[in-house]
Write a structure and sequence with these properties.
Length: 160
């Protein structure tokens, strides 16, 4: 797994599980030994496709960072919206209510496939738990529609 940090650095480690310990993500080997610890706020994303130093570098799975740089793919969308509910949610989770990017979708799928809980994924992506659950449902419905060619009754109206 590649652990991409907000600073732009990364670590390639063999990971069996990822746990949350207060404000840190704890990465354990398949044998259970701790191989890395990083503050949750310092982790930009987790990429499960990059498995070691000999692997071809995978594209960064961008989520959000603490940098408000429009040229960066890791932009926090936390500008005031004028909506008190959205602005309040973004105090804690800067990407709350922002449109999802393809990179965030890839990161969301990778983290859930790696066994991370919705709550932990929401912290890493800096979104609300409900937003993560909703996006997972949307991605699963889209995948089902693509696989079967059928559309669900909710697929005719999309607000994203």
């Amino acid at each position: 797994m590649r652990i991409v940090l907000d600073t732009g650095g990364f670590s390639d480690v063999e990971v069996g599980t990822v746990d949350r310990d207060d404000t840190e993500l704890v990465f354990r080997s398949p044998a259970g030994a701790v191989v890395a610890r990083h503050p949750m706020t310092a982790v930009a994303c987790l990429d499960v496709r990059a498995t070691g130093p000999l692997s071809t570098p995978a594209p960064a799975v961008a989520t959000t960072s603490g940098v408000d740089d429009p040229s960066s793919p890791l932009v926090v969308r936390a500008a005031p919206t004028g909506n008190p509910q959205v602005d309040a949610a973004r105090l804690d989770r800067p990407a709350a209510y922002a449109p999802w990017t393809p990179q965030e979708d890839t990161g969301l799928e990778a983290m859930t496939a790696a066994g991370m809980s919705v709550a932990d994924v929401a912290i890493v992506l800096r979104r609300q738990d409900g937003g993560v659950r909703s996006r997972l449902r949307h991605l699963r419905e889209a995948a089902d529609e693509a696989a079967t060619g059928a559309t669900s009754p909710t697929s005719t109206v999309r607000f994203d």
